[in-house]
Amino acid sequence: MPDENLLATLEQSLRQTRATRNRLAARLADLELEAEKLRTELAEMDAIAGQTEAAMLRILSSVINPAPAPPSDAEIESALRRDEAKAAPVATGYNAPPGFAPQPRTPAVPHHIPPVRADIEIKDDRFYDRTIPQATSMILREAGVPLHVNEIYNRLKEGGFQFTGQHPTISIAVSLNRNRRFRKVAPGTFDLMIRDAAQAS
User: Is the pTM higher than 0.90?
Assistant: First the structure.
């Protein structure tokens, strides 16, 4: 019968169409998976290129604009004198707070000055949210001896401390000189005041 033949033909055509559609859908899924892999690889390549470019810029900037030499002890002492001079009207004479005693000037004696290291690797972030006096108290307690501001700087950087000024060692010296927990024992060298009291008793 013609209707049965037509129906069989249409049914066969429908099966072929569905089979073709399923093949195309599977191929599309494969292509989409491949495209996603390629997008991931592109993102990785972009990240590597960005890191390489940043490293090149750091190297070029260090060659073009080398880091300034750390301040000498004389420059640190000069900065401390300027800072003390600014505070002098408040901390001397009739305006002196109760119990205030000006610290005697430390004599300039020869001593070892450790270098400020340029290749400091951050070991942890224990000083990330600390102030200079808080972090330095920890460093001096651990060291058990007085330290020069250059060495304090090196250890602060290792502990993840974030400096903002151009001369961090001067910032350290001024901050410690203003704080009664510390005492200057040589040019640019500080110790804990409490350690002196413990050794004296």
Answer: no
Measure the CA–CA gap between 32 and 40, rounded to whole angstroms.
Answer: 12
Rounded to whole angstroms, the Cα distance separating 164 from 201 reads 40
pLDDT tens-place string over residues 65-123: 556 667 777 888 888 888 888 776 544 444 555 555 555 554 444 456 888 888 888 88
Q: What is the C-alpha separation between 189 and 176, in angstroms, rounded?
A: 10
Q: Do residues 132 and 171 make contact, with C-beta atoms less than 8 angstroms apart?
A: yes
DSSP, residue by residue, the chain:
-HHHHHHHHHHHHHHHHHHHHHHHHHHHHHHHHHHHHHHHHHHHHHHHHHHHHHHHHHHHHHHHSPPPPPPPHHHHHHHHHHHHHHHHHHHSGGGPPTT--PPPPPP------PPPPSSPPP---TTTT--HHHHHHHHHHHH-S-EEHHHHHHHHHHTT----SS-HHHHHHHHHHH-TTEEEEETTEEEEHHHHHHHH-
Q: What is the pLDDT of residues 125-146, one digit of tens each?
A: 899 889 999 999 999 999 999 9
